[in-house]
Amino acid sequence: MSGDAANAGVRGAMGVGGMREGRVGGEERRRLVVERLRAAKSPVRGSDLAAEQGVSRQVIVQDIALLRSAGVNVASTNRGYVLVEGGVPAACRRTFKVRHGEDRMADELRLVVDLGGTVEDVVVNHRTYGRVRAPLGIGSRRDIDRFVRDLATSKSAPISRITSGYHFHHVTAPSEEILDEIEDALGSGGYLVERMPYEMGEDL
C-alpha cells in the first residue's frame, strides 16, 4: 500500500467507533499511529503505542482493527506492529539452508515464527530428482501444530528425508533486522549449514 493509500485508509477509519480516550480524538490518534509505524525501522509494540498516545493497549488494538478495515495494511508480529506498504519488500526475504532430524522440525520452525518470520516454503535440491518445493506459509505456532499434526495423521514423511535432512526455507519478515535475528537463532540452534559449491548463486 502506498503512502497515499494508507492516508486514505486513515481517513476511512475516521469517525468509526467514536473512541475519544487519550490526549487526542480517535481520528487524530489513528493518523499518528500510522505515521509512527511508517517512520519505525522495526516493529512497534502495542504497549509502546498506547503509552505514547496516553490510552490503553485495548484502544490501540481497536485502532489497528479499524485501520485494517479501512484498508491500511498493518501486520502483527511477535515483536509488534509493522506498516506494510506495497507488500513485503523483496529485500525482507531470505533463503536459509538448514539440516535437522524430524524430531527437531517443530523447534526449528518455532525459532522463526517466534521472532516474527514466516516460513514460506521448504525446498530440497536433490542431485537425481532435481529441485522439489512445497509451499508452507507457516507464520505462527498454531500453523506449526497443524503442520505437524497433518504430517502425523497422513503418515507422510517430510520431503527433506530424501536429502538426509538437508533443505532450504524461504523466510519473509517485516524487516532485515528480524531476518538477522532469525539467522542468528538458527545458527545458535545448530540448524544452519553452508551451501555446497554447486548451490552457490542458485535462485532457489
UniProtKB/TrEMBL annotation:
<feature type="binding site">
    <location>
        <position position="100"/>
    </location>
    <ligand>
        <name>Ni(2+)</name>
    </ligand>
</feature>
<feature type="domain" description="3H">
    <location>
        <begin position="97"/>
        <end position="192"/>
    </location>
</feature>
<dbReference type="Pfam" id="PF08279">
    <property type="entry name" value="HTH_11"/>
</dbReference>
<dbReference type="InterPro" id="IPR004173">
    <property type="entry name" value="3H_domain"/>
</dbReference>
<dbReference type="GO" id="GO:0046872">
    <property type="term" value="F:metal ion binding"/>
</dbReference>
<feature type="binding site">
    <location>
        <position position="169"/>
    </location>
    <ligand>
        <name>Ni(2+)</name>
    </ligand>
</feature>
<dbReference type="Pfam" id="PF02829">
    <property type="entry name" value="3H"/>
</dbReference>
<feature type="binding site">
    <location>
        <position position="167"/>
    </location>
    <ligand>
        <name>Ni(2+)</name>
    </ligand>
</feature>
<dbReference type="InterPro" id="IPR036388">
    <property type="entry name" value="WH-like_DNA-bd_sf"/>
</dbReference>
<feature type="binding site">
    <location>
        <position position="108"/>
    </location>
    <ligand>
        <name>Ni(2+)</name>
    </ligand>
</feature>
<dbReference type="InterPro" id="IPR026043">
    <property type="entry name" value="NadR"/>
</dbReference>
<protein>
    <submittedName>
        <fullName>3H domain protein</fullName>
    </submittedName>
</protein>
<keyword id="KW-0533">Nickel</keyword>
<keyword id="KW-0479">Metal-binding</keyword>
<dbReference type="InterPro" id="IPR035922">
    <property type="entry name" value="3H_dom_sf"/>
</dbReference>
<feature type="domain" description="Helix-turn-helix type 11">
    <location>
        <begin position="29"/>
        <end position="81"/>
    </location>
</feature>
<dbReference type="InterPro" id="IPR013196">
    <property type="entry name" value="HTH_11"/>
</dbReference>
<dbReference type="InterPro" id="IPR036390">
    <property type="entry name" value="WH_DNA-bd_sf"/>
</dbReference>
